[in-house]
Model the fold of this input.
Amino acid sequence: MADLSIASAAALTGASLAGNDLLPVLDVSASAGSKGSKITVTELFTGRALAGTTALGLLNGGTGAYDLTLAHSGTLTAGRTLSFDVNDAARTVSLAGNLTVPATGTAALLGVANVFTAQQTNATAGASGAPAFLVNGAWLTSTASAVAQVLIQQSGATTFNGSASGTGFAVNCGTGFGGNLLNLQKAGIDQMLVRNDGFVRVTGAIWSDGSEIMVATSGRLGFNLSTGPSLYGPTGLLEVRNNTNANALSLAVYNTYTSSTSFERFMVDWTTAANTCRIGTMKGSGGGTARDLALMSDGTVRMTIKASGVINITGLPTSSSGLATGDIYSNSGVLTVVP
Done:
């Protein structure tokens, strides 16, 4: 078969090109003899490095999928970048398999905001000085009312509005959300939760180391969310009442306590006798000692109701001199009321 010139050769399309088809090559490095050479399509694009090139591109003029493998067997020196650019913001590079980065390498997103619409899982184990997840950027601490360092916000919620001095961690839900903003559990059991309406429930104790536990004006410190007593704090008045405002309450201040049947206490009792307030000391049915009840003024005991029931009044004047209407004095041992 006679040799053909390139101009007289039949044209091929990308779809009909075969791996064993030959391409003419002008070998400019040949020292002598013919510089005309040939190479198959497969040989050209398999495992070959082209020295001095800055880019290698394959263009598919049809509608089929691209099948492209890029491999770099050398080591990129400092300041060098291996890039894959589709050169079109409307195009997408899709990875059907896995993107693997060696332990000594780094995979980084560009310095722009990224939105993830699928679940993300971080299975990294924490280590000493190396938390599994760390947010350590500089905090915005001024004019930052709408900014939090970490913000969990429900889609469609009104924009978060925090402190103008900055916020570390924030949760912001919409008006229709009926669940918990925060729920801390141990073995699936609530230990602490913050409801959407601001109620905070703690399974254990709340304590303060040298500070205070405060309730805002007109707020309440409750001991049961539905029917238990609460402390209310309107200005200048401390109230103890039932959360439903319907049930009578009692207040006990203890001298000793061993159990619910062994104790000594002072009682303000609205519950034992309906519509009657009983005030006095009590002992338990199984232990404790009956105690006196003394009334004082200016630090001095004026009257004592003894545990036996005897009433003792001390310091009574012996005449009506200087007394006002309604005052009581001892008239030779007889209690007398000034008319």
Notes: The two ends are 150 Å apart (CA to CA).
